[in-house]
């Protein structure tokens, strides 16, 4: 199995043009909704926090953690961004981070940038955030269930992204679905543990030192 199949930052040529363009349409629609909804929710404290969050995720993604088998993973950050900022502002942050990585560092292709933003950002900021709120509610609310809910959502966001990339590779005729699933999901089940640990660690630190930042999101979401 060739190493590139392990990547979530897909390069150009991995997905067919129809698949890449379809995910551009989906991603642009999600960003348009996010910009409109976030614009109605943001206050003077939220905008600087978005900048800080983008800088943190960008820097954290520069550090890879090694896993057995000769590959490595890094933080995605979509769930963390959504928990702190809400899904709409979180989506904007993730789109900015992933776009800068592609444009400046050539980490991922430009034709497939829409798919990469969807896979690594929107899955976490929307799907991961919904799962986080659902699990937290089952556990008795965010005060009690914040950290375990964040761990579950963070892990699932990585695995879901890997599964989607496998399907994108398969429908692009880059490789077969079974091969792509084994290559992607097998490793990202482990990488997701790292995502969960980093997400929980960051939230625990923020809850202990700046709990008001967590309450900011609740106020913004109430205005949605």
List the helices and strands and how they pair.
Blueprint: H1 17-41, H2 46-60, E1 65-67, E2 71-73, H3 78-85, H4 87-105, H5 113-138, H6 142-171, H7 177-209, H8 211-222
Antiparallel strand pairs: 1-2
Helix pairs in contact: 1-4, 1-5, 2-4, 3-4, 3-5, 3-6, 4-5, 5-6, 6-7, 7-8
Task: Characterise this structure.
This protein is mainly α and 224 residues long. It has a single domain (11-63, 75-222), classed as Arp2/3 complex 21 kDa subunit ARPC3. It has helices spanning 17-41, 46-60, 78-85, 87-105, 113-138, 142-171, 177-209, 211-222, and strands at 65-67, 71-73. The chain has a two-stranded antiparallel ribbon with strand order 1-2. Helix 3 packs across helix 5 (113-138) and helix 7 packs across helix 8. The longest helix has 33 residues, at 177-209. The chain starts with 16 loop residues before the first helix and ends with a helix. The model is unreliable at 1-5 (pLDDT under 50).
Q: How does the helix and strand content classify structurally?
A: mainly alpha
Mean pLDDT: 87
Proportion of helical residues: over 70%
CATH topology: Arp2/3 complex 21 kDa subunit ARPC3
- Uncertain runs are 1-5
Largest sheet: 2 strands, antiparallel
The CATH class is identified as Mainly Alpha
User: Strand-residue fraction?
Assistant: under 5%
